[in-house]
Amino acid sequence: MLKFLARRLVNYLVLVFIATSLAYILASTTFHPENKYLGRNPPIPATTIQQILKDHNADPNIPVLVRYDHWALGIAHGDFGKKIDGDEPVTAELKRRVGVSLRLLLIGTTLGAVLGVLIGVVGAVRHRKPADAVGTVASYVLLATPTIVIIIVVQTVFVWINQKAGNPSLFPQTGEYSSNLHGSAFWLDRARRLVAPTIVLTLFGASFYSRYQRSAMLDVLGSDFLRTARAKGLTRQQALFKHGVRTALIPMMTFFAYSFGLLLTGAVFTETLFNWNGMGQYLVQSVQDRDTNAVAAVTCFTAVLVLLAGMLSDVLLAALDPRVRSK
Questions:
Q1: Does domain 90-288 have CATH number 1.10.10.10?
Q2: Spatial distance between the Cα atoms of 118 and 214, rounded to a whole number of angstroms
Q3: Four-point Cα dihedral 305, 306, 311, 314, nearest 10
Q4: Predicted confidence (pLDDT) per residue in 132-152, tens digit
Q5: Dihedral sign computed on CA atoms, order 306, 310, 313, 319
Q6: Is the torsion defined by CA of 144, 212, 220, 242 positive or negative?
Q7: Among positive and negative, which fits the CA dihedral 102, 108, 110, 113?
Q8: Of 6, 1, 8, which Cα lies nearest the Cα of 306?
């Protein structure tokens, strides 16, 4: 098992290098950061613009491969360069944004996965009964509704709750925290601001995961090994939870691991509408700013997350499937 994980790790590291390099080269050849400084009043001298771009390793007059070599040497020392609109290191901004996204997405994604699995299992066990129908309809409605609409509905509900409670700031709808608070009040404010976006992520996660889990569980319910377990004396509940649910969770583990790895930079609408300055918002902002260093850094971070998700998926698969551990 350890040899298998070691081989997978090497493969993933190669893929991270390729993905990050391609992102940098593609951004360098398509972005034109000099346009950010043109047309200003008063105009910026051309020599000044060229010096700014050179300091940020974004001078289009320098060949792309030369810029890539300079950038790769910096990466080897943990330096992703500087932001195009200032001298702040991209690494510092990346660290701050990662923490913001993790605080938001870790809870919402986990709750969505757990709730989705429960709904899927209940739907499969109660196939074509009211519980299954309610879960199916609710999931399809959420999946068919645009993300922005769901977010606005959730925000409207919480505005109504605030009005009924007589406290407009009971559940704030924007930002991660209030800078004028300290101590326990600061952390309570953070928790209240986390409620609405977490519910949005939980709803979307539960709708996706419940469909996959229900399908996987229905396949297991008709399998021979489950009937064999019943024939050996296990009750229906024992057979379902000891063998059925565990087997049905195997494909879900891979889906959950990779979904979380990609979600950290994919929750763009949630972070934007709730004004959470996380990784998804940073990626969109970096593309708008034509910031090659930032785009490459976000791509590298996402690739590393997918690497970790793949390793986590392999470990969870081995924990759930004895056949993997025996190889």
A1: no
A2: 9
A3: 140
A4: 899 899 999 998 888 889 999
A5: negative
A6: negative
A7: negative
A8: 8
**CB-based contact 120:213 (threshold 8 Å):** yes
List CB contacts of 189: < 8 A, sequence separation 6 or more: 172, 177, 178, 181
DSSP string, 131-185: HHHHHHHHHHHHHHS-HHHHHHHHHHHHHHHHHHHT-TTSS--SSS--TT--HHH
Q: Output phi, psi for 80, to 5 deg.
A: -90, 10
Predicted confidence (pLDDT) per residue in 194-249, tens digit: 899 999 989 988 998 888 888 888 877 777 777 777 677 777 676 777 767 777 77
With a CB cutoff of 8 Å and minimum separation 6, the contacts of 17 are none
285: Cβ–Cβ under 8 A, 6 or more apart, which residues?
none
Total-model pTM: 0.78
Question: Looking at this protein, which amino acid is placed at residue 55?
Answer: D
Q: Is the dihedral of CA 99, 105, 109, 111 positive or negative?
A: positive
Count, residues in the chain: 327
Which residues neighbour 279 within 8 Å (Cβ) at sequence distance 6 or greater? 97, 98, 100, 101, 264, 265, 271, 298, 301
